[in-house]
Design brief:
Number of domains: 3
Strand content: 5-15%
CATH class of the largest domain: Alpha Beta
CATH architecture of the largest domain: 3-Layer(aba) Sandwich
Structural class: alpha/beta
Helix content: 40-55%
Number of helices: 17
Oligomer: single chain
Length: 368
């Protein structure tokens, strides 16, 4: 059964005058998604950062009646093709994306994987990899198998599809982020792999079902890959292009970026070498290098907290959250515990002194 306000969620996403920052401002100010459409022009104009042109469009027939009708049509298509609608306030929405102001307020998802998997690795690179690059990519994916990861990429030619295909082969869940709507799989040559990914992974898009392929959509896709990744691996890339954009975004999101080095004169390795040289990526030669830097253990056995350490109720609550997530970023931990980041930082420092939690690169925490 569809939620009462799903139509409003889709309608706000489809409204051309409203981006993710404005949408969040409107929802926060109005107190809910449905209230945005029912509020008066005078009320909407009081929302922080919302201009008169935006409000005029939202209150016009095109922005209201037409918008809701388009959203109804869109939802019918999504339900017909078993595609989920995940709004940024929904539990199933990727929590790693949630706190970035430029993340989409709504994504469409089809698949079986948990978008909040404990460990997510992004793999990107050139569309025209060398045989060596393909081999390295496959070795990295297979090497990550013992570490319980989900692999995310962009379903493109080259390194992307190599990562997806190898993930399917070794049964690692893998997610493809598309730069168009679900009506199309691009490139068509990857349709078979995309359908295989649905069985242990899935596909994501922020674009409406019938949205066609457009050049400007692919950089938008890159921010989702960067934002959802705990670790981003770059395998062969020129010094400009989509992979470098994704690495730059990941650095901006305070993610851990890794690059495979190449020979000095190879065009396909210039980007990776540049990332390493400028300290924007760590040099790696194997999956074990990534696990070492991320402090990931292949040991499947659960940890046992020191029973002799005295914890107060708040500390116990935080320990419980960390235990269920295996590892968690401080911003997400603050959100789930409903505590301000400054207070959370102080509590985590105390828990580190007590020897029950460990800090990881990228402001993440695990049980000790």
């Amino acid at each position: 059964m569809r939620e009462q306000n799903t139509i409003y969620k889709i309608a706000l996403k489809l409204t051309p005058q409203i981006g993710p920052v404005t949408a969040r401002s409107l929802i926060s100010y109005c107190g809910g998604i449905e209230q945005v459409f029912k509020a008066s022009k005078k009320q909407l104009l009081k929302a922080p950062g919302v201009g008169e042109k935006t409000v005029d469009f939202l209150k016009s027939a095109e922005g209201f009646e037409v918008g809701l009708a388009l959203a109804e049509k869109e939802l019918n298509l999504l339900e017909k093709h078993d595609i989920k609608v995940l709004f940024y306030t929904d539990e199933g929405y990727p929590q790693r994306l949630k706190h970035y102001t430029d993340s989409p307020i709504l994504i469409y998802y089809k698949g079986t994987a948990d978008l909040n998997h404990p460990r997510i690795v992004g793999i990107v690179g050139t569309r025209k990899p060398t045989p060596h690059g393909i081999s390295i990519c496959e070795e990295l994916v297979e090497g990550l198998l013992p570490y319980n990861v989900l692999i995310i990429s962009g379903l493109a030619y080259g390194v992307d599809i190599t990562a997806h295909r190898k993930s399917v082969e070794v049964n690692i869940p893998t997610i493809g982020v598309m730069g168009h709507g679900f009506k199309t799989i691009y490139p068509q040559a990857h349709r078979k792999t995309a359908h295989q990914m649905l069985e242990n992974g899935g596909l994501i898009s922020e674009f409406a079902y019938e949205t066609a392929i457009a050049r400007e959509h692919f950089p938008m896709r890159n921010r989702i890959i960067a934002g959802m990744s705990d670790a981003l691996i770059v395998v062969e890339t020129a010094q400009s292009g989509g992979s470098m954009i994704t690495a730059q975004l990941a650095n901006g999101y305070n993610k851990d970026v890794f690059a495979v080095p190449g020979r000095l004169k190879d065009k396909s390795s210039k980007g990776c070498n540049h990332l390493i040289k400028t300290h924007k990526a760590a040099l790696i030669e194997s999956a074990e290098d990534i696990a070492y830097i991320m402090r990931w253990s292949a040991d499947k056995e659960g940890r046992q907290t020191n029973l002799f350490v005295e914890l107060n109720e708040v500390e116990k609550q935080i320990m419980g959250i960390i235990e269920t997530k295996e590892e968690i970023a401080i911003d997400l931990l603050s959100y789930e515990a409903k505590l301000p980041p400054s207070k959370m930082a102080a509590i985590l420092l105390e828990l580190e002194f007590k020897g029950v939690v460990k800090s990881l690169p990228g402001k993440k925490y695990i049980l000790a």
